Amino acid sequence: MSRRGIAPEHWTWREGPVEPGRAVVIDIDGVLSDAATRQHYIEAPRRDWRGFFDACGDDPVIEEVRVMLDLLDRDIRVVLLTARPARVHELTEAWLRRYHIRWDVLLMRPWGDYELSRDFKQSSLWDLRDFGFEVLLGIEDDRRNVEMLRAEGVPTLYRHSGYYD
Ligand SMILES: [Mg+2]
């Protein structure tokens, strides 16, 4: 649980902590990065999530979402909220730099956290609100996360990636 103005330790700031304010919450896999080429790792019956996440450094960017972030008011905080595990943190940051993606804070699943993606994202949303962010919009490709965010009062765009069909 975080207190207002104090961020949990596993949050990463691009350029140091920003003042809380109006924010958008953006998923990475299937929203900013096109994971289609590593989709085969998580096809049933043997879902290899480790292989799926470890291959994330080579994804193409989803250009329309990258551009949209650039077009948002400079006043809006960009929160990247992903269920990727912390062990691919360096890969993820390098990938964000390579495509010049706008972001302020990156929330990844901490070491040893094996919660469902939806539960991790829900508790992260509570942390974001405790910190003082006003989360105005979400973008997600997993319908379970879309439903959770909407139920939490966050209008959320669904982007179809096909990963969860
Ligand atoms: Mg996703």
Task: Give the SSE layout.
Elements: E1 11-13, E2 22-26, H1 49-54, H2 63-71, E3 77-85, H3 89-98, E4 105-109, H4 117-131, E5 134-140, H5 143-151, E6 156-158
Parallel strand pairs: 2-3, 2-5, 3-4, 5-6
Antiparallel strand pairs: 1-4
Helix pairs in contact: 4-5
pLDDT average, as an integer? 93
Element pattern in H and E: EEHHEHEHEHE
Q: Beta-strand level of the residues, as a percent range?
A: 15-25%
Structural class: alpha/beta
CATH structural fold name: Rossmann fold
Q: Strand order within the widest sheet?
A: 1-4-3-2-5-6
Low-confidence stretches: none
Question: In the CATH hierarchy, what is the architecture at level 2?
Answer: 3-Layer(aba) Sandwich
CATH class: Alpha Beta
Q: Count structural domains.
A: 1
Number of helical regions: 5
List ligands, each type once. magnesium ion
CATH superfamily heading: HAD superfamily/HAD-like
User: What value does the Rg take, in angstroms?
Assistant: 15 Å
Principal-axes shape call: globular
Largest sheet: 6 strands, mixed
What is the end-to-end distance? 34 Å
Q: Would you give an account of this structure?
A:
This protein has one domain: Rossmann fold. It is globular, with a radius of gyration of 15 Å. It has a 6-stranded mixed sheet, with helices on one face. The mean pLDDT is 93. It has 165 residues and is of the alpha/beta class. 30% of the residues lie in helices and 19% in strands. Helix 3 links the parallel strand 3 and strand 4. The site of magnesium ion has 6 residues, from loops.
